[in-house]
User: What shape does this take?
Amino acid sequence: MSERYALLLKLLYPVVALVLVIAGWALAVDAFEIPRYVMPSPMDVANHIADDWPALVKGFGQTFMEFLLGFLAGAIAGFVFAVLMDASRPVRGILYPVLITSQAIPIVAISAALTIWLGFGLAPKLVIVALVVFFPVVVNVLDGLASVDKDILNLVRSMGASRFSIFRHVKLPATYTPLFSALKLSATFSVTGAVIAEWTASTSGGIGAYLLQANSRLNTAGTFAAIVFLALLGLVSFLLVIAAEYWLTPWRSGSKARRWSSSYWKD
Assistant: This one.
């Protein structure tokens, strides 16, 4: 099987799945004669999207910006905290219990408190999305750093490797797989965080606010239109993480010998 044919199959499967879901949805609405105010048909949702396209696109852009900035902030902060906790046992002993305890607090409660502290602007939304990303990244990166073989560490130290070189060439590559696993999960969970943030701390729109308004008016077509855009946001974010993983881990798709010299492990 050629690589091009395999790629076409990978693209075809989700398209077929989407067509089947939409077809089953349309058939169910017609076969069971479900009232449109209970379950709109795909055509009703498509018509609503066409009629209210500017507002939906504007809301999508705002929610995507909130998601992107919060996602990057949470991922960077989580990675830095994991490295610090791995480098210092006292730091890990102090911070890790605090992180575990923080996960017992519902994100809705945190968002309410952040709204009181930070107001109704962009800041509380970014913090909420960042918190959703932060913990999975910390835990997975810590696991990756802890999984490095001790014999390999001893070997590179005996070859004259500095602490920075050990981190760069041995420990850092070991974090890629667990890091991107955490980011893939967080890419979808963060959309939920962005919606919750807009429900509690938004005065300027967004898809979450659009969804809340449509739901309060019993506008099921508008509600489903917002859900479609939120699903699109989750899909786009997931694909961006996959693209970043492909770019940063080229050895997964091909192998290339690494150049080596006697000073490779020395700064």
Q: What stands out?
A: The chain has two domains: 11-34+41-50, 52-251.
